[in-house]
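2024-03-11 09:14:02 DEBUG pipeline.ingest accepted 1 chain
2024-03-11 09:14:02 DEBUG pipeline.ingest length=352
2024-03-11 09:14:03 DEBUG pipeline.predict start
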Amino acid sequence: MSDIFKKRMALCGNTVSDSIRTQSDEIMQKTFTNDLGYRQCKLYSRTMEYLEDVEIKYQYSQTYTINKDQVEYLAQFRPGYFPEKKYMDQDSIERFGFYLEIPDKNTGVHELWLILGKNDKNSFIRYNILKCNWMFKWIKNKQIYSCFGVLRNRNNYNSGVWSDGFFTSVDNQSQFIVPTTPTTQTIDYNDRFMLSDSMIRPLVFEVSKLEDTFPCGVTKVTLKQDHFNKVTDNVELKICDYYDSPVIPQEPEIEDIVLSCSGTNRALRVGGSKRTISVASDIKDKSVIWSYEFNGNKLSVEELSNDFEISEGKNTLSIKALLNYNNLGKVIKIIATLPNKQPSSIELEVMR
């Protein structure tokens, strides 16, 4: 009897703390969707490649005030899920810098967030995230680079200018955070960034400090203010030193995704046959990210399950209108998205 009891208890852990942890994880798994902060999100790599759909609990750590910088939020994945371990590089170093696409329940807008670290609690580990609020652009070797990141404010209480009695210069600081990628590793000291909302007198900053190991996977760039150069800086594109070379830098060409639909007309008959949507353009081995708008609302496959039967593939999708006559005359918009390509869409009307 004692051996049976020991084996049964061993399933929960070797110690009381292991047993409590196991039971807590089981409760968390079963009640995960009950929280008001529950979100269904998309996880992207540091280079903005789609990885998978994930579930999180979205929480704030402190209340925002205009006197301070943007506050960090917390994201809790389901127990046992750790993106930095699942998508670890071959050198076995845990790196952060993943992107999370989180839907805003108040506005319905999907926002991009950056995972910057985690707090190693005894249970229910939470990740520190910040909302991406700027598209950073710079030039290196006549090539335009860009990356979504987080622009931070460095509170300093000086007058904004510095003078030694002979020379006077602007004296302000700023900082931004981006994932560490081959693209962001091109950022070097003295590179200049235009971080301003003004088209008349834009603010320009110069890189003075780089950190890429606190933590790994994330690069923190410290900036000092510089003067705007109307000869070399491009205000419309918000890129510094755009005209510094005799050859105007070229942005990478962004091609459109071409979609095709089976059948003679773009319509779905109630209870009728399926329509197949496929990508006609060459996308090699990449997987398309599918999204949907129905009756003017952005909805997921699960939210559409009462009205449509949808089966997603790597670069094809099949859809069938279920037997629901309330949907007659309504239009579903199917959107295909790929990194570095313009999204494309097809609209299908539900008919009798």
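2024-03-11 09:14:41 DEBUG pipeline.report The chain has three domains: 35-131, 134-226, 255-351.
2024-03-11 09:14:41 DEBUG pipeline.predict end
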